[in-house]
Every structure is written in structure tokens, then in C-alpha cells.
């Protein structure tokens, strides 16, 4: 339970979920595998050692928002094959979560995924978590024309393509900076603070409406609030 006062989300009719580290826990170690796969791709592409590859990966991530952005902009890499390679990770640690599924299904309105990953990987993650069929659509990095969150263009493209009224949408994310453009459009914003350092809540950026540490707990707290 977040220590912050719980805002009113009764106006929300469209629930946007990030994927990685939002619909599963950091302890599952998926993102470390993806980072290693990205470095392996870079290592092979540039014929460099692992340390150099991680540095290139990191430098492109800082400059372009994703390593893919750098590989496309500076080297013309084809994104589909790249993403197939980097997302070829072991998801066996992910387990279905009925409590998460029931919490999402109970939300009134549309449920969508908004991810910097690609849709085939997102489908695998959703399947592993027992969430197949829960979401109406997946707005992925290809549909953003490879301008990853937090690029404002990707939020505009999302709202336009899926006919979302941002004033009635809520976005839930573990990367706080990805919530800023959402708030600028009028969306409600929920930040999953995996560090659990809620003592710093007083310094929570103004673009975050609500801070939580567990998605399933939060979803069920909403349901209880509605039925109370
Ligand atoms: Mg995330």
C-alpha cells in the first residue's frame, strides 16, 4: 500500500500498461538477459569484446533512448531481426498470476499495452504471466516508428492510432520519466516504485499522481474502494 493519499481515478476509461518490470517483478531477471543479448548483438556486429559492447550499448541507450535507436540511426540496422535476437530470452522464471489477471480484467474500460519492446516478445511475456487475451492491443516500438518512450511523439501516435482520449486515460509504468509526457497530455499517472523507498515520496515529481509498489495489490485496492 502506498503511503500517498489515493487519488480518484473514477473518470478513467482507458488503462495503459507498460510491459517490462510493470507486469512482472524485477527479481525475474528478464531485463538483465535482454541487456546481455543486446551486448551480444553489438559484440558480433562491431567485432568488439563484451566490455566494449556493453559500453556501446549503454552509450546508444543514453543518446537515443534505446540501443536499437543508435543501431538504426548510425548503422541502418533492420529493427525486426534485431528485436527478435535481443528478445530471445528465457522467460521460464515468469509464472502466471491469477491475482494480477483478475485485477486487470476487473478494470472498467479498455486495457492496452504501451511498450518500448516489440509485440511478439510482449505476447510471450503476457502468455507467461497468464495474461493472454486480457489486453485489447499492444502499441509497440514498431508502431511508435522506433521513437521510444519518453519521446512525446510516441504518446501522440498511441492516442491517435487507438483513439484514446488522454484526459480519460491512466498510464502505469515503472520508469518514472516515461510518465512525464503522459501527464503533459492529461493522463493520470501511476508509478511503480520498485525500490520501495517511499520515504522519498515527498520528492515525488509532480507528473506522478500515485506511487505504488505492487500492481496486483493496487488493482485490488481499487476494486475494494469501488465496492466499499
Ligand atoms: Mg518498464
How would you characterize the overall build of this protein?
This protein is an alpha/beta fold and 228 residues long. The protein contains nine helices and six strands, in the order E-H-H-H-H-H-E-H-E-H-E-H-E-E-H. It has helices at 30-46, 50-64, 67-75, 79-86, 98-105, 119-128, 152-161, 180-184, 215-227, and strands at residues 14-17, 110-114, 137-139, 169-173, 188-192, 210-212. A six-stranded parallel sheet has the order 3-2-1-4-5-6. Helix 1 packs across helix 2 (50-64). The longest helix is centred in the N-terminal third of the chain and has 17 residues, at 30-46. It is globular and about 60 Å long. The two termini are 17 Å apart. It binds magnesium ion. The site of magnesium ion has 6 residues, from loops.
- For this structure, the CATH topology of the largest domain is Rossmann fold
What small molecules does this complex bind? magnesium ion
Q: How far apart are the first and last residues' alpha carbons, in Å?
A: 17 Å
Low-confidence spans: none
CATH class of the largest domain: Alpha Beta
Give the count of structural domains: 2
Question: What Rg is obtained from the alpha carbons, in whole angstroms?
Answer: 18 Å
The overall pLDDT average reads 92
Strand order of the largest sheet: 3-2-1-4-5-6
Which short descriptors sum up this protein?
9 helices, 2 domains, 11% strand, alpha/beta, 228 residues, binds magnesium ion, globular, 6-stranded parallel sheet, DNA polymerase, domain 1, Rossmann fold
Amino acid at each position: 500500500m502506498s503511503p500517498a493519499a489515493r487519488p480518484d481515478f473514477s473518470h478513467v476509461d482507458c488503462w495503459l500498461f507498460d510491459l517490462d518490470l510493470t507486469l512482472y517483478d524485477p527479481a525475474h531477471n528478464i531485463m538483465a538477459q535482454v541487456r546481455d543479448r543486446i551486448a551480444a548483438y553489438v559484440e558480433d556486429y562491431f567485432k568488439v569484446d563484451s566490455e566494449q559492447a556493453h559500453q556501446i550499448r549503454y552509450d546508444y541507450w543514453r543518446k537515443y533512448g534505446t540501443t536499437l535507436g543508435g543501431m538504426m540511426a548510425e548503422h541502418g540496422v533492420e529493427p525486426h531481426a534485431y528485436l527478435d535476437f535481443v528478445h530471445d530470452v528465457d522467460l521460464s522464471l515468469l509464472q502466471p498470476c491469477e491475482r494480477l489477471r483478475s485485477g486487470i480484467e476487473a478494470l472498467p474500460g479498455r486495457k492496452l499495452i504501451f511498450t518500448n519492446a516489440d509485440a511478439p516478445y510482449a505476447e510471450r511475456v503476457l502468455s507467461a504471466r497468464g495474461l493472454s487475451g486480457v489486453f485489447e492491443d499492444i502499441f509497440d516500438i514498431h508502431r511508435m516508428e522506433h521513437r521510444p518512450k519518453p519521446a512525446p511523439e510516441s504518446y501522440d501516435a498511441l492516442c491517435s492510432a487507438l483513439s484514446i482520449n488522454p484526459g480519460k486515460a491512466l498510464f502505469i509504468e515503472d520508469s518514472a520519466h516515461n510518465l512525464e509526457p503522459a501527464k503533459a497530455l492529461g493522463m493520470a499517472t501511476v508509478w511503480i516504485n520498485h525500490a520501495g523507498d517511499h520515504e522519498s515520496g515527498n520528492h515525488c515529481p509532480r507528473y506522478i499522481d500515485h506511487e505504488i509498489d505492487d500492481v496486483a495489490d493496487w488493482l485490488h485496492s481499487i476494486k475494494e474502494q469501488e465496492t466499499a
